[in-house]
Write a structure and sequence with these properties.
The chain is mainly β. It has one domain: Roll (SH3 type barrels). The chain is 15% helix and 45% strand. It contains one helix and five strands; from the N terminus they run H-E-E-E-E-E. It has a five-stranded antiparallel β-sheet with strand order 4-3-2-1-5. A hairpin with a 4-residue loop joins strand 2 and strand 3. The longest helix is centred in the N-terminal third of the chain and has 9 residues. It is globular. The relative contact order is 0.29.
């Protein structure tokens, strides 16, 4: 994924876009353009957040 697409997903109020990190569905909380990373957390219960490389995020199309 690229930085611009990650920013679009974060700014979209709908949760219809599925994003995965290492095959696991995550929510993008914040995009850090300077470091090309994003703060994400798992979909579902649990609020543990982690910072990952945006290039490691994949948008899932159904």
């Amino acid at each position: 994924m690229d930085v611009q697409r990650a920013k679009q997903i974060v700014s979209t109020p709908s949760s219809d876009v599925e994003v995965q990190f290492n095959g696991v569905s995550v929510w993008i909380d914040q995009v850090h353009e300077d470091s090309k990373t994003a703060t994400v957390h798992l979909r579902g219960p649990g609020e543990e957040r982690t910072e990952v490389g945006i290039e490691d995020l994949k948008e899932v199309t159904h």
